[in-house]
């Protein structure tokens, strides 16, 4: 790991359609594959309601007919099973060149978990990891999902932290394929919490965990 702090561009945007954000990520990734010296990026945003399935995910985890539904459903190149995004959930997309950190995907996943665990600690909450699973749990309820894609050691996709979303959307799926751990949100522990305040904490903890200097765009 380099001792000097790399700069990382921070894009703190509002509500963005999922496919727009996906196209943006793919563009940033392609640029960095061809020009590895470009700065890293962290995008923080929220999505309108959408279900996303990772590559090779099990369609049985959808509790509705994908071919006959009003829901927005997208299959994308990240790892992991089906998940749900909606307003009130802060989504983070780091576009990092892991050659400048550690070329180890398990390390990277644990670092993303650590960012969110540190955010929860700022609120006096103790986030947990579960052996063999990826994500962050609070008292047995999953509050953060993580799914990544890495091409030539450059990352895309990322994490989703349930701050104060309408959790009813999760009732139509088996989130991440895990039937025995319910989904939760921070608002259940901290009434009145907002995505805006949590974004600030995520950015700060991300900079600390990855040893980068964030440059607000």
TrEMBL record:
PROSITE patterns tied to this protein: BPL_LPL_CATALYTIC, LIPB
Known pathway: Protein modification; protein lipoylation via endogenous pathway; protein N(6)-(lipoyl)lysine from octanoyl-[acyl-carrier-protein]: step 1/2
Active site: 176 (acyl-thioester intermediate)
Keyword Cytoplasm: yes
Homology family: Belongs to the LipB family.
Annotated gene: lipB
Species for this entry: Anabaenopsis elenkinii CCIBt3563
Catalytically driven reaction(s): octanoyl-[ACP] + L-lysyl-[protein] = N(6)-octanoyl-L-lysyl-[protein] + holo-[ACP] + H(+)
Name of the protein in question: Octanoyltransferase
Positions contributing to substrate binding: 78-85, 145-147, 158-160
UniProtKB keywords: Acyltransferase, Cytoplasm, Transferase
CC terms in the record's Gene Ontology section: cytoplasm
Function, as annotated: Catalyzes the transfer of endogenously produced octanoic acid from octanoyl-acyl-carrier-protein onto the lipoyl domains of lipoate-dependent enzymes. Lipoyl-ACP can also act as a substrate although octanoyl-ACP is likely to be the physiological substrate.
BP terms from Gene Ontology: protein lipoylation
Note: In the reaction, the free carboxyl group of octanoic acid is attached via an amide linkage to the epsilon-amino group of a specific lysine residue of lipoyl domains of lipoate-dependent enzymes.
Site annotation Lowers pKa of active site Cys: residues: 142
Subcellular compartments: Cytoplasm
EC number(s) reported in the record: 2.3.1.181
Domain spans labelled BPL/LPL catalytic: 36-214
Stored CDD domains: LipB (cd16444)
A single GO molecular function term of this UniProt record: lipoyl(octanoyl) transferase activity
Highest taxon listed in the record's lineage: Bacteria
